[in-house]
Amino acid sequence: MKAEILAVGTELLMGQITNTNAQYISQKLNSIGIDVYYHSVVGDNSGRLKESLLNALNRCDLVIMAGGLGPTQDDLTKETVADVLEKKLVLHEESLERIKLFFDRMKREMTDNNIKQAYLPEGCTVIENNNGTAPGCIVEKDAKIVVMLPGPPKEMKPMLDDTVIPYLEQKSGYKTVSKYLRVFGIGESQLEDRIMDLVDAQKEVTIATYAKEGQVTVRLTTKCKTYEEAIFKIKPVEEEIAGRLGDNLYSTEDEELEYVASKLLIEHGITISLAESCTGGMIASRLTDVPGISKVFNRGIVSYSNEAKMENLSVSPETLEKYGAVSRQTAIEMAEGVRKTAKTDLGISVTGIAGPDGGTDQKPVGLVYVALADKSGCDCRELRLTGNRDRIRNMTTLYVFDMIRRYVLGAVRINKE
Amino acid sequence: MKAEILAVGTELLMGQITNTNAQYISQKLNSIGIDVYYHSVVGDNSGRLKESLLNALNRCDLVIMAGGLGPTQDDLTKETVADVLEKKLVLHEESLERIKLFFDRMKREMTDNNIKQAYLPEGCTVIENNNGTAPGCIVEKDAKIVVMLPGPPKEMKPMLDDTVIPYLEQKSGYKTVSKYLRVFGIGESQLEDRIMDLVDAQKEVTIATYAKEGQVTVRLTTKCKTYEEAIFKIKPVEEEIAGRLGDNLYSTEDEELEYVASKLLIEHGITISLAESCTGGMIASRLTDVPGISKVFNRGIVSYSNEAKMENLSVSPETLEKYGAVSRQTAIEMAEGVRKTAKTDLGISVTGIAGPDGGTDQKPVGLVYVALADKSGCDCRELRLTGNRDRIRNMTTLYVFDMIRRYVLGAVRINKE
């Protein structure tokens, strides 16, 4: 099945917002084996919208439209689809009730305009909207399918996930299931090298890799009659790849590295404190993104000055004098210092040169030391990072979360032995 | 002039990346008075690319293409444009030299494939690429203009800004100039109310507003023969709006609030320390995004535990016992405590309930105290924020930066009097 995603809204053409809906819908369609051939965006203009829809129907079997379902005169999606597919718009009582209820809950007055939102093409499948007033719908005619969804992502996404994707899957008679293996510590091309033979030999389970700064995701996808059958088919491929990735694999559930590391700390009740210099609070900030972290996170010290390193972390003046703030010795004293003051199981430190200024020949921009102290000692690593200030800070932060993850998993393994 | 932005790349249709280029190019074209009528995306497929280009040329005067200029067989943009416009591809010696130089600088081997990148349609205007190997170009035929740019944003953006936009401006004989007024502390609809009469009366200077979480931007745009003339026209409108926005206006240069506040601290040499609880390092992290902040930022304490509040910030056990960690009294002691230890001009603190758990009837999720201490006392504010954990943390962070900005400006004003 060939698909086109047709977004409607002048705000997209003005550059006021990015068309993130197209990416989201593309991922979902691809994951159930539907090929997306085109994205297009058109403004709130009746003539151009009609022309774009005709064009899409001419070259694709499935057109997913997002936007233009609002209550105003500018919102023309349903009217245009009804016109092109020669369907009447009829009042859908249930949707009208839902819209009324929505306004009641929000304690706002419903306007006559909103009644327009309950008019839908005759014979369509209605898609409930639990996060807004505009219902969506699926219309079929002559082997073509048109899906209409509202533009705001928080309304569109659940409607796509809960109704449209299952509908399309049912039409095909197949269920498409994907597993995501998330990897840190090896690059995309290195990863591809390791699994090249599997990629070349892929048959029923397709293997795709995606990279973003410092992280790679491997997606395994297959199509079966049932979910269980799909998982059964994916399992051996997943296990083979997992074996090759070793401990670079940090999640088989498509989770962020920060989340995985933080959850491990919480689950195992391992308390932690942080001493950050060049990351300037970024590690603490991402750690505290995770609800429930207060059970194990005691404190973070952003020691931007030497005084802070001495006063809050007990780094000795001699160390700072002799080796400098960016040194292995300082990193170790920072980690041990914060661990001791905070009385936590782990103390973690970062000191480095994020740039753009402050680099020297001996200590260039991108030189970073990270250290992890526990009751039995301190593990300190030297990183040589490239890129700008943002990238150096972000890569350091990811590295620390990976260090935490490896530490907890290692500690758990030792405890079990 | 009607424009279409045609992005080329299967990775967009697979949902691997978002089409941020379309938004960026749209903003730039709109800012020089060119109307964008369509966005489209097509994969690395010769037939479909040709069809999409013909379609675009049929309905628009200007087509800006991004992507498909790489060295591989998949990259078909130039070949397709040359075919459609009936132009030959000829070797551009200067571009070949630049590509060779690029590989020398990166200390990488140049492949034969890269020579293909130096072939460009005859008679085109070449656009230099200082951040990659693919040159771009502008081709004109029969009153139609086709612009080809590489896909990676860090290559595309400077090429668009430095060559394409001036080229298009020169063609029109006009210069379009925009000024951006950035506002914190009032919502978009409230702002629109305040300037409604100006919006209704807009003639030569157009006024548009954009909102993002907690912040609003007002764009003023006009078209003139010269830059100076445009600024002269914008000035009275800018001054009128600035007067109505008062101290809610934090930048007339389209800068981020965090950047404005941090720069003010650096410029005036006002030293600062932070004590963060619910923001968990987010304020420190954004402050240290700004290069040069180490001159004034001494330290941050992420006091997630009561022990940290007592040990690092000298909050008294009685205060914590009597009023709780989330209270006006604790916020004040945190701000004064960190200021005293760090010996800085300012001490700033945050304590609150970011959720999703931890709220009570007396202290609901979203209750946050922020305090700013200086040598003469402490200013503490109670915030009642709505939304999820992310929004509460982000809004608190913005609020603190706004507080810093207002403080520095107030202090500067007092010193001057």
Account of the 3D structure:
Two copies of one chain form a homodimer. By secondary structure, chain A is α/β, with parallel strands linked by helices. The first copy, chain A, is built from 15 helices and 17 strands. Chain A has helices at 10-13, 20-31, 46-59, 77-85, 93-106, 112-116, 153-172, 188-200, 227-245, 257-268, 282-287, 306-313, 317-323, 328-342, 389-416, and strands spanning 2-8, 35-42, 62-66, 89-91, 119-121, 125-127, 136-141, 144-149, 175-184, 206-212, 215-224, 249-251, 272-276, 297-302, 346-352, 367-374, 377-384. In chain A, the strands form four sheets. Chain A has a six-stranded mixed sheet, sandwiched between helices. In chain A, strands 14-13-15-16-17 form a five-stranded mixed sheet, sandwiched between helices. Chain A has a four-stranded antiparallel sheet with strand order 10-11-9-12. In chain A, helix 2 (20-31) runs parallel beside helix 7 (153-172) and helix 10 packs parallel to helix 15 (389-416). The longest helix of chain A has 28 residues, at 389-416. At the A-B interface, helix 2, strand 2, helix 3, helix 11 and strand 14 of A face helix 2, strand 2, helix 3, helix 11 and strand 14 of B.
Task: List the SSEs and their pairings.
2 copies of one chain form a homodimer.
Chain A (H helix, E strand, L loop, with lengths): L1 E7 L1 H4 L6 H12 L3 E8 L3 H14 L2 E5 L10 H9 L3 E3 L1 H14 L5 H5 L2 E3 L3 E3 L8 E6 L2 E6 L3 H20 L2 E10 L3 H13 L5 E7 L2 E10 L2 H19 L3 E3 L5 H12 L3 E5 L5 H6 L9 E6 L3 H8 L3 H7 L4 H15 L3 E7 L14 E8 L2 E8 L4 H28 L1
